[in-house]
Amino acid sequence: MNLILTRDKATTIPPAAMKLSGIPDNAKLELTTLDGAVILTKSKMTTMEYVKLLTALTAHVGQILLSLRDTCGHCDECDEGGCVYSNLSIEELCRPSVTVPDWAREEADIAPDAKLDCYVDEDSGVITVCEADNDFDLSDVSPVILYALRKSGCCLSALENALMENDIIYDK
């Protein structure tokens, strides 16, 4: 069950949500903060309670993964040529698309952690490297997540476009 809570100075979890979760009124709670999420659990669990928690969290992660796949589309739905990333290895997808030595970044006054892009002048064959306009791409996604998304059928080309555009894909 998902509840939408408005965050103010103190967020209150509705008693009904606590009841549905099976957490007793007198239970000591543990709050775990993640990047973009908060998990509230009992601070003391039996082995079976812990296994059930793992099962529930795994199911939720599966739902998130399928939701992302549905948002990006299935690789089967790509244009005639298919997904441009379908034949690339996960290692290739995780690698930054453009890399240059530190001395060159320094000389060009480009931050060491800035994403890079390049353009080719086909007439001269000159490649121009510059700071990218985007903050994120597939190289920012862990290999484990990319593998799971690929296995789910997610179009990684559409995912990269959504990352590069910083699209909002979840809004409740």
Structure notes:
By secondary structure, this protein is an alpha+beta fold. Helices cover 37% and strands 14% of the residues. Strand 1 and strand 2 form a beta hairpin. The longest helix has 26 residues. The model has no long low-confidence stretch (mean pLDDT 88).
DSSP strand count:
4
SS field, number of helical segments:
6
Widest sheet: strand ordering: 1-2
Order of helices and strands: HEEHHHEEHH
Structural class per helix/strand content? alpha+beta
Ends: how far apart?
Answer: 13 Å
Main sheet makeup: 2 strands, antiparallel
What value does the Rg take, in angstroms?
22 Å
From the spread of the alpha carbons, the general shape counts as elongated
Question: Which stretches are poorly predicted, pLDDT < 50 over at least 5 residues?
Answer: none
Give the mean pLDDT: 88
SSE inventory with pairings:
Blueprint: H1 15-21, E1 29-34, E2 37-42, H2 47-72, H3 90-94, H4 102-107, E3 116-121, E4 126-131, H5 143-152, H6 156-165
Antiparallel strand pairs: 1-2, 3-4
Salient structural properties:
alpha+beta; two-stranded antiparallel sheet; 6 helices; 4 strands
Give a short synopsis of this structure.
This protein has 172 residues and is an alpha+beta fold. It is 37% helix and 14% strand.
